[in-house]
From TrEMBL:
SUPFAM superfamilies: UDP-Glycosyltransferase/glycogen phosphorylase. It comes from the Eukaryota. The lineage of its organism: Eukaryota, Viridiplantae, Streptophyta, Embryophyta, Tracheophyta. Belongs to the UDP-glycosyltransferase family. It comes from Pisum sativum (Garden pea). This is Uncharacterized protein. Transmembrane segments: none annotated. Signal peptide: none annotated. InterPro entries: UDP_glucos_trans (IPR002213).
Length: 452
C-alpha cells in the first residue's frame, strides 16, 4: 500500500509463531485505529497474509531457515536460528525502509518488537531508532526472569526436585515447580537468553494484560525496570478482530456442532499452537473423555497425528462410538468464538497466555495442563491466584482424565470455579474502558512524544 504522509510511522516486528504473531497484529490493528501508519516486518516463514490487512505495509526479510527446520516445526531450534540469521537481513530491510521514508521527508517514529527477538535491541540502537518492547506473556512470567536470575546468583539453580513445592522466596505466589525453568531440555540456554532479555533497557514495555489481574507483578516490574509500562489488554477484545487475524485458518465447522449442544455442556480441549500430545496420550484422552460422559470439542493439530481419521479408526469400538456420540474432533478451531459460545462450560488447556486471556474474557473455567515455560506460571495464576483453574496430577491416564473432567464439568467444585470465572470476566471487561483504555492513551501519547 502507499505510504501515508504526515502520519507517524510505526514498524512492528513479530516472531513467526502464532501465539506471538496474533497479539502483535492485534496491537497493530489498535494502533492503526489511533492514527498510526503500520508496517509489519516479518520473516518469510509463517508470514501473515497481507490481503487480511489492507491497511498495513508488509516488509518480508530473509530468515535463512532450512526446509528441514521448517518441516520439523521445532520451536526452540527455529527460534535460536532466527536470532542469528535475521540480524543482517532485518537491518538491511530497515535501512531500506528508512531511506524510502526519507525521500518523502518522513521517518520511523518507533519500532515495536517482540521481546522474544531480543537481538533487535542492539539493532535499533545502532540505527538510532526509538524502540518499545512488546511482551506476549504475562507480566508475572516476565517477573520470573528476574527471580530466576536472582536464584542463580544465590546458587539455587539447578533446582532440586525436593524444593519444587516450596514457595519461591522472591515471588511467593509461585512454587519452585511453577518457574518457567522446569520442563526445559536445556535450562542453561534459558538462563542465557534470559540474561540477554534482562540487559535490554527499552524506552517502554507493552504487556498484553490487565492491570487488575496482575497489579502486584506490574508494580514489582515498574520498581525493577523504571521504564514506562503499558498494560494494554486483552488485545483480542480491544482489536475485536476474531476472524481476520489467524495465520492458520479454520477449516472445520465446529460452531454448528456447538449450536446443537445444551448450555455449558461442552468441554473445549486444545493445546494452543506449539505443544502437542503423543499418540498413546491421545488414546488415553479419548478413553477418559468418553468415560466422563461429557460432550467435548477437541482440537488435534496435524503435528500431533497426521491422519486423525486413521487414528480414530484404530480405537476400540466402544471408544470410537463414544467419540462419535459425544465428541467433535477438529484440526483447528476459531477459539475465541468457541470460548464465547454458550454451549462451552470448560476448557482443558495448556495455559498459553493467549488462551488464558481468551478464556478469562468469556468466563470459562480451565483444567490446567501446562507443558513448558510461561504456561506453568499461568497455570498457577489461574488455579491459585484467580481461582478459576483446576490443578490436577497431569497424568495422562484414562481414569485420572475421567475424574478431572467430571470435577470441572459435573461436580460442585467446577460450579464454584465457573461462578468465579464469570465474576472475573465482568471485571476484565470493565478494564476495557478503564485501565487498559488509559494505558492505550498513555502509549499513544508516549509514541507521539518520541517524535518531538
Ligand atoms: C506460546 C506460549 O504457550 C504462550 O504462553 C506464549 O504467550 C506465546 O507462545 P501457544 O502455544 O501458541 O503460545 O499458546 P497461546 O498463547 O494460548 O496461543 C494460541 C493461540 O492460538 C490462541 O490465540 C488461540 O485462540 C489460537 N488457537 C489455538 C486457535 O485459534 N485455534 C485452535 O484450534 C488453537
Amino acid at each position: 500500500m502507499m505510504e501515508n504522509q504526515n502520519v507517524p510511522h510505526l514498524v512492528l516486528i513479530p516472531p513467526p509463531f502464532h501465539g506471538h504473531m496474533t497479539p502483535m497484529l492485534q496491537l497493530a490493528t489498535i494502533l492503526h485505529s489511533k492514527g498510526f501508519s503500520i508496517t509489519i516486518a516479518h520473516t518469510h516463514f509463517n508470514s501473515p497474509n497481507p490481503s487480511n490487512y489492507p491497511n498495513f505495509n508488509f516488509l518480508p526479510f530473509f530468515d535463512g531457515l532450512s526446509d528441514t527446520q521448517i518441516t520439523s516445526k521445532n520451536f526452540i531450534d527455529i527460534a535460536s536460528t532466527l536470532s542469528t540469521n535475521c540480524v543482517t537481513p532485518l537491518k538491511e530491510t530497515l535501512i531500506h525502509h528508512m531511506a524510502k521514508l526519507e525521500k518523502l521527508d518522513e521517518k520511523i517514529a518507533c519500532i515495536i518488537y517482540d521481546g522474544f527477538f531480543h537481538f533487535i535491541d542492539s539493532l535499533t540502537k545502532e540505527l538510532k531508532l526509538p524502540s518499545i518492547v512488546f511482551r506476549t506473556t504475562s507480566a508475572t512470567n516476565f517477573l520470573t526472569y528476574h527471580v530466576c536470575a536472582h536464584l542463580q546468583t544465590k546458587g539455587y539453580l539447578p533446582l532440586q526436585d525436593s524444593k519444587s513445592l516450596d514457595l519461591v522466596p522472591e515471588l511467593e505466589l509461585l512454587r519452585f515447580k511453577d518457574l518457567p525453568i522446569f520442563g526445559l531440555t536445556n535450562p542453561h540456554d534459558f538462563l542465557h537468553s534470559t540474561s540477554k532479555t534482562l540487559s535490554i533497557t527499552p524506552l517502554a514495555v507493552i504487556f498484553n494484560t490487565v492491570d487488575g489481574l496482575e497489579d502486584s507483578s506490574l508494580n514489582d516490574l515498574q520498581h525493577l525496570y523504571n521504564v514506562n509500562l503499558f498494560p494494554i489488554g486483552p488485545l483480542h477484545m480491544i482489536a475485536n478482530e476474531f476472524d481476520n487475524i489467524s495465520i492458520l485458518r479454520e477449516k472445520d465447522n465446529c460452531i454448528s456442532w456447538l449450536n446443537n449442544k445444551p448450555r455449558k455442556s461442552v468441554l473445549y480441549v486444545s493445546l494452543g499452537s506449539i505443544a502437542s500430545w503423543e499418540e498413546k496420550e491421545l488414546t488415553e484422552m479419548a478413553c477418559g473423555l468418553v468415560k466422563s460422559r461429557q460432550n467435548f470439542l477437541w482440537v488435534i493439530r496435524p503435528e500431533t497425528v497426521t491422519d486423525v481419521s486413521a487414528w480414530l479408526e484404530s480405537l476400540s469400538e466402544d471408544v470410537k462410538l463414544g467419540v462419535v456420540e459425544r465428541g467433535c474432533v477438529v484440526k483447528w478451531a476459531p477459539q475465541s468464538e468457541v470460548l464465547a459460545h454458550e454451549a462451552v462450560g470448560g476448557f482443558w488447556s495448556h495455559c498459553g497466555w493467549n488462551s488464558t486471556l481468551e478464556s478469562l474474557c468469556e468466563g470459562v473455567p480451565i483444567i490446567c495442563q501446562p507443558y513448558f515455560g510461561d504456561q506453568r506460571v499461568n497455570a498457577r495464576l489461574l488455579s491459585h491466584v484467580w481461582k478459576v483453574g483446576l490443578e490436577w496430577c497431569n497424568v495422562m491416564e484414562r481414569n485420572e482424565i475421567e475424574k478431572v473432567v467430571r470435577r470441572l464439568m459435573v461436580n460442585q467444585e467446577g460450579e464454584v470455579l465457573r461462578k468465579r470465572a464469570i465474576e472475573l470476566k465482568h471485571e476484565i471487561r470493565l478494564s476495557l474502558s478503564g485501565s487498559s483504555c488509559d494505558a492505550l492513551d498513555g502509549l499513544v501519547k508516549f509514541i507521539l512524544s518520541l517524535e518531538g
